[in-house]
Amino acid sequence: MKDWLVIVNPNAGIGKARKDWVQISGLLSRRGLNYLALFTDGPNHAIDLVANHIGKGFRQVIVVGGDGTMNEAVNGIFKQQCVPTTAISLGMISVGTGNDWGRTFNIPTDYEKAIAVLKAGNSMLQDAGTVSYYNDDKKEERFFINMAGLGFDGLVAQKTNADKMKGKSNPLLYLANLVSSLFSFKSCGARVVVDGEELKEKMFSISIGIGKYNGGGMKQAPDAKPDDGLFDITLIKDMTKLSVVANVARLYNGTIKKHKKVQGLTGKKVIVESDQPILLEADGESLGHSPFEFNIIPQSIRVVV
């Protein structure tokens, strides 16, 4: 029996994980990690791989990929029914384009340093979130551990993921799609209920954060604490296109909530209804559309940090 289950997404980082696997596997072996490596062969495959192999006795999982692969591993941990979710240790070797979950915990992007973190084995329990949403008329549910974006964020993620599928990748890809999406996106009226308190506004975007970062380093939930049992919510109300462009720097330096059109809230349950369907992304994965319901699951995932 191997000690670690290693889930490798060969397409992460537009094929970087496949290219670098020889190097990563060599480092894992030299560090003395006893592991079974499995490669994903498409979207959501990691969910089943993780769930099935927990059933076979694995209790330690390493993701070699990006935030989307990490999200699938988390969903696999929640899918299995063999042991409590907190009985599984989840670590990451970041090979994605965003690597936003790891930023909150200062996980090194250098492979050797990341493996040293895994070898040290220091862990903590962090919160997870669950979101219900719709694909056409079908209601679906997804777990996430970093951040969900609604409205404009959902559209930017959809465009960015479509570009990645075409093989495009660079550090400014998300930012480029942010700017280009301004020409097609329109704010719409939304009803937002946070722990029973209702707010009705014309919304540009809504971020539901467990971690601080999304979009490859944007600090859209700057006050988020991943283990406090609360979502950190950033509501960006209707803004002009010029104002959005002028304030992009606030998304990177953590001052976004100081803008007069931005409101920050915290809560355990969030309901969002909109005048017209708005898009959703969670941990960078494009999912479905409104209406949404978010719930926090406090300290339910054990992560190696």
Molecular structure report:
With 305 residues, the chain is α+β, with helices and mostly antiparallel strands. It folds into two domains: 4-121, Probable inorganic polyphosphate/atp-NAD kinase, domain 1 (Rossmann fold); 128-298, Sandwich (Tumour Suppressor Smad4). 30% of the residues lie in helices and 36% in strands. It is built from nine helices and 14 strands. Strands 7-9-8-12-14-13 form a six-stranded antiparallel β-barrel. The longest helix is centred in the N-terminal third of the chain and has 19 residues, at 12-30. The model has no long low-confidence stretch (mean pLDDT 93).
- Share of helix, binned: 25-40%
Tally the helices: what do you get? 9
| Rg | 19 Å
Distance between the first and last residues' Cα: 24 Å
Oligomer: single chain
The side-by-side strand order for the widest beta sheet comes to 7-9-8-12-14-13
CATH class of the largest domain: Mainly Beta
Low-pLDDT stretches are none
Secondary-structure-based class equals alpha+beta
Q: Main beta sheet, described?
A: 6 strands, antiparallel, barrel
What's the architecture of the largest domain, going by CATH? Answer: Sandwich
Q: How large is the share of residues in beta strands?
A: 35-45%
Count structural domains.
2
Mean pLDDT: 93
**SSE string:** EHEHEHEHHEEEHHEEEHHEEEE
- CATH topology label of the largest domain: Tumour Suppressor Smad4
Shape: globular
Give the beta-strand count.
Answer: 14
Compact description:
This protein is an alpha+beta fold and 305 residues long. The protein has 9 helices and 14 strands.
